């Protein structure tokens, strides 16, 4: 699915010369749809819509619950503690007797839910009467660190409908989050074996995601430590105040077998959606994950697949996730262990700074995983909360996906022009990201590159921002001006780039200097890479390049040193001297 960029107001000129008109167009593009889709409750105190659930057997669980309730102004009467298992798993019986039924009873006793007869969609005679939630004061449930995240399979559970399922779906293990999302259906009962089709999958009106329509929007504050769990709401609130910014990285696999094509296509469509929405987007189609040498900088969104454990650039001790960042890696067991910092994906991504994420606790099969195109569309374009976007993107309930992060987090619910004005008036350097998004939106809808070059050249923020100066260099490069591009990238290095942005700039400059035959600049840039990023460069390639450049610059001793270092890294059978660059 793609945003209808062509539906932007006719009065918005293709070339946005004036700052005010540009921001007005940006605001209308991103908010016009969301303005009539946001539920009325979004205008009230959002904490009133939330219940918070903690494990009374885990002291840290209550501390996380109270922290969240204080940050989001959740009424004390909507905080529930239950004595649960203290590990990752609970049995079906434990889930039913210690969490599901006690919570259902508490919600009705406290007047948060009213149970009654649900009007039948098919009112024909003989249609059985179903009981369910007919009134609800809440929409969200936040499970806190210490609440188990997996429901173990029950081999004694039998349902007649099971025979209608494909053999691989005849299972009843599930994610606690996904099962609890069905709590409104538990009043009358629902099948526990196999996935329960989400009737609100792909919904475009966030207000429909409501217990009276059979779904509770469940997420958890969790991760490898209670400190990480507590910080999720703090980072979400920071991004709501200052904007959710950063670059969007999509790690596809390229050529895949036919059965995996839907997953590959979904990620590519999500990447295209992000690009059309003005996010600085990087799409990788190599089979392997982003390598450890790849400069992942200032991450706002990361979506990739398909490695069992965190690897490559995401496995480095420090990853540049910006506050509010969404990170998701599609793998069957991405959320199997939320406590680990190096196994699977959800725990490690949270450990390295992600604010919101999702993942399966057991095998969901590809068709049972969230649709990232729907998620990006609802979250970014339509301004859904994280909880709304997460569950609108889920094809199945009572299945395998856990959702981690503050469900109220809504970074795109505010007018972009109002946010830009606030950042500008406060002198925040984050305003550069707003300018960058404006440029990208215009480029995505066909505005000539020359017009956006003029915009950046005239923008005062560009002269102070590594982000905008690098973008200006990129646009010069598109115009076929390699010397101007190199000059801008060099200037961006002096404007306090992040460590990974600096690495990217140095890598690009080294290649460009060689293309321009600026041998000394190329040599010194590669020496800087070796000195400043020794654990994040391809040393064999770098030694080879340095040896060749040293020869060109008539530095025989240094050439011998680098050639020896290169040779020492080669397997004996392929040990040879690197050739001189033509």
Task: Assess the beta-strand content as a share of residues.
Answer: 5-15%
- What is the radius of gyration? 26 Å
Structural class: alpha/beta
Widest beta sheet: strand line-up:
2-1-6-10
What's the overall average pLDDT, rounded?
90
Shape by Cα distribution = elongated
Number of helices: 18
Distance between the termini: 47 Å
Can you summarize the main beta sheet? 4 strands, parallel
The multimeric state of the shown protein is: single chain
Uncertain residue segments: 1-43
Helix content: 25-40%
DSSP strand tally? 17
List keywords for this structure.
4-stranded parallel β-sheet; 18 helices; disordered N terminus
Give a written overview of the molecule.
By secondary structure, the chain is of the alpha/beta class. The protein is built from 18 helices and 17 strands. The strands form 6 sheets. The protein has a 4-stranded parallel β-sheet with strand order 2-1-6-10. Strands 12-11-13-14 form a 4-stranded parallel β-sheet. The chain has a 3-stranded mixed β-sheet with strand order 3-7-8. The longest helix has 19 residues. It is elongated and about 90 Å long. The N terminus is likely disordered.
Q: In terms of topology, how is this protein built?
A:
Blueprint (H helix, E strand, L loop, with lengths): L18 H19 L12 E6 L3 H14 L6 E4 L6 E2 L1 H18 L3 E6 L11 E7 L3 E5 L5 E2 L22 E2 H5 L15 E2 L19 E5 L4 H17 L4 E5 L9 H16 L4 E4 L14 E6 L16 E9 L16 H6 L5 E4 L11 H10 L4 H7 L3 E2 L3 E4 L11 H10 L5 H14 L4 H10 L7 H13 L3 H12 L5 H17 L3 H14 L6 H14 L3 H13 L14
Parallel strand pairs: 1-2, 1-6, 3-7, 6-10, 11-12, 11-13, 13-14
Antiparallel strand pairs: 4-5, 7-8, 9-16, 15-17
């Amino acid at each position: 699915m793609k945003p209808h960029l062509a539906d932007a107001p006719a009065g918005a000129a293709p070339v946005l010369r004036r700052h005010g008109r540009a921001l007005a167009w940006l605001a209308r593009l991103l908010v016009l749809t969301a303005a009539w889709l946001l539920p009325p409750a979004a205008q009230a105190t959002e904490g009133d819509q939330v219940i918070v659930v903690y494990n009374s057997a885990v002291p840290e669980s209550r501390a996380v619950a109270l922290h969240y309730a204080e940050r989001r102004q959740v009424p004390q009467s909507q905080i529930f503690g239950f004595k649960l298992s203290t590990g990752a798993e609970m049995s079906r019986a434990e889930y039913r007797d210690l969490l599901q039924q006690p919570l259902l009873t508490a919600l009705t006793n406290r007047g948060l839910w009213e149970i009654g007869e649900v009007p039948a969609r098919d009112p024909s005679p003989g249609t059985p009467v179903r009981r369910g939630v007919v009134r609800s004061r809440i929409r969200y449930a936040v499970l806190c660190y210490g609440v188990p995240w997996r429901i173990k399979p029950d081999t004694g559970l039998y349902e007649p409908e099971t025979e209608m399922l494909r053999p691989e779906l005849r299972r009843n293990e599930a994610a606690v989050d996904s099962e609890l999302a069905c709590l409104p259906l538990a009043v009358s009962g629902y099948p526990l074996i196999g996935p329960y089709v989400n009737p609100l999958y792909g919904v475009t009106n966030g207000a429909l995601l409501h217990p009276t329509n059979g779904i509770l929007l469940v997420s958890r504050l969790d991760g490898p430590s209670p400190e990480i769990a507590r910080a999720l709401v703090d980072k979400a609130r920071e991004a709501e105040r200052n904007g959710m910014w950063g670059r969007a990285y999509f790690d596809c696999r390229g050529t895949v077998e036919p059965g995996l094509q839907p997953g590959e296509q979904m990620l590519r469509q999500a990447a295209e959606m992000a690009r059309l929405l003005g996010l600085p987007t990087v799409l990788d189609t190599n089979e392997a994950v982003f390598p450890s040498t790849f400069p992942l900088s200032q991450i706002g969104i990361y979506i990739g697949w398909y490695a069992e454990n965190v690897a490559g650039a995401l496995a480095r001790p420090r990853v540049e996730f910006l506050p509010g960042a969404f990170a998701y890696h599609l793998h069957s067991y991405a959320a199997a262990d939320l406590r680990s910092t190096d196994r699977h994906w959800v725990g490690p991504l949270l450990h390295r700074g992600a604010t919101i994420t999702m993942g399966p606790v057991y095998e969901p099969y590809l068709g049972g995983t969230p649709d990232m195109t729907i998620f990006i569309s609802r979250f970014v374009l339509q301004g859904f909360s994280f909880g709304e976007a997460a569950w609108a993107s889920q094809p199945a309930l009572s299945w395998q996906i856990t959702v981690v992060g503050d469900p109220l987090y809504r970074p795109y619910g505010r007018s972009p022009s109002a946010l830009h004005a606030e950042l500008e008036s406060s002198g925040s350097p984050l305003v550069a990201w707003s300018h960058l998004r404006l440029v990208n939106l215009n480029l995505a809808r066909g505005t000539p590159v020359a017009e956006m070059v003029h915009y950046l050249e005239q923008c005062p923020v560009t002269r102070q921002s590594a982000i905008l100066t690098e973008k200006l260099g990129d646009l010069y490069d598109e115009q076929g001006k390699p010397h101007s591009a190199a000059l801008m990238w060099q200037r961006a290095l002096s404007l306090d780039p992040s460590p990974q942005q600096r690495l990217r700039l140095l890598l690009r400059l080294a290649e460009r200097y060689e293309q321009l035959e600026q041998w000394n600049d190329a040599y010194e840039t590669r020496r800087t890479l070796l000195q400043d990023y020794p654990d994040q460069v391809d040393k064999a390639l770098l030694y080879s390049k340095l040896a060749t450049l040293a020869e060109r610059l008539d530095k025989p001793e240094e050439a011998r040193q680098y050639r020896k270092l290169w040779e020492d890294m080669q397997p004996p059978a392929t040990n040879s001297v690197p050739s001189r660059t033509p």
